[in-house]
Every structure is written in C-alpha cells, then in structure tokens.
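Quick question: who can interpret this fold?

. . .
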Amino acid sequence: MTPTLVRRHRPSPTSPEARARDWAEIQERMLVPLYEAVYDRLEAGPGTRLLSLGCGSGLALLMAAARGASVSGVDQDGRRLALARERLLPDGAPESGRRLGLGGPEAVHDPTGPAFNLITAFDPLYCAGGGTRGLAQTLARATALATPGTPVVLAGWGPQERCAASGALRVAARLADPMCAPARWRPSGRDDLEDLARTAGLTPDGSGRVSCPYGYADLTSAVRGMLSTGAFDAAIRATDEDQVTKELVEALHPYQRRDGTVWMPNVFRYLIARVR
C-alpha cells in the first residue's frame, strides 16, 4: 500500500473516550448475530434474570431487555459503562430490572432479590488482562450469585481460516511488547472455552457457531472500529498509534470492496455451560 493511501485512511489519534464511543457506534453491532443466536437458543425473555460480564456499552443488555428480561451488567471500562447507562438508564435514575456496575459481579448483586438465571461473557477480551485464571475467577464469583443449572455463555473466535479479522488482530499481537505490554488477542484453541468453563467449575452443555461479519462504510471506519475493541491497546503502548494504524490499514486493505466498503467474514463460537 502506498504512503498516500495510508494517510488518506488514517484517522486522527483517538482518546480513550473516542474509542469507547467508536465501540458503541461502529463495532459493537457486529456481534448482534451472536447475541440473537444465544437469546433465541436459551429463550431469553420475561422471567430471565441476566448478568452480563463485560457488558460494554450495553447493546446486548438492551436487546435482552427488549425481550422482557431483567438485565444487569458489569464492565471494567468506565467509559463504555457510561454509554451503557445512556442506553439503559437514559434519565439517570435506576429503572426496575436494570442494573449496571463498574468492576466485578458483586457490583450489581442484590442480596434481597432473586438469583440470576442466565450469565453471559460475550466479549472474548473481557478480563483478558488477567488471563484465563482471572476470567475463571470472575466467572466463579458470578456463578455464586446464580441458581444451580443456570446457563453460562462464553464466546470466542472461531477457526482462524474462517475469521478474516484474524489477520488484522495478528498485527496487534505482533506489535505488542510481550514483556511490557502483552497482547490481549491470540488465536483461539479448539477447546479454549471448554477449558475455561471447567476451570471455573462449570459443566459444558452444548455449543454453537455464528457468522458475525465485520462490515464498515470505509477504511477509516474500519480502523476506528478495530482500534475500539481494545485488542490494539498494548501494541499502541509498545509502539505508537501511527505505527499501529499504518499496519492495520495494510492488513484491512485486501477486504476493501470496489465501492469503498470493508467486509470481513468471521465466525464466532459460543459455549453453554451450567452452574453445578
């Protein structure tokens, strides 16, 4: 790719606030097919008491609430959580059946209310900084707030050969300094979700695959969307945003179509496990 083409599609350096907004406005919708498939399979609706780990800016919670579910969500990113509040609690006051909290599952626990009967961890990067053990510990704390037999949904990437976005994500892993800023993305192993479930004390009980293509209006939107995932944060700290953006544009360019749009077919895998 020529330097001129790279400059043309290089967005201005983004603040953490801007990346959170880009997640909500550009990237989060790419996972809607995953949310819908899980909610359909588990018949989420009235009577569902959902706890979402890594709820982001709240789109999955909003979709569950539209089905009649009571929804609670936690996230470690206060900026994304503020956007979730705008969506779910637009007037600022707590609404019946909707709770949001910063941090772990205890942040939305109501000791006087009914236990959760559905737990989701849709974001494969949630708690990734703590690795598998950190996420397993979070899941164990969450399942302590749920009824026995509650389904716990874990999500991750499908096979690399069926995920066009994996090429762009490899840029993030390659540029990150493994000693000072370990990458938050790595290729998914075949049994990663099952291993995570068992480490958390859960019993695997079925799985599925969902097509979640990444589609963008142009390369600039694609770069903004990908940077908003958090997968590139370590690479930016280890190098700089200009370098990451340059290489990301090059990785995305093969997926740009004649009309300027960017289209990357992807497959996500989800696992349903049960609280013992």
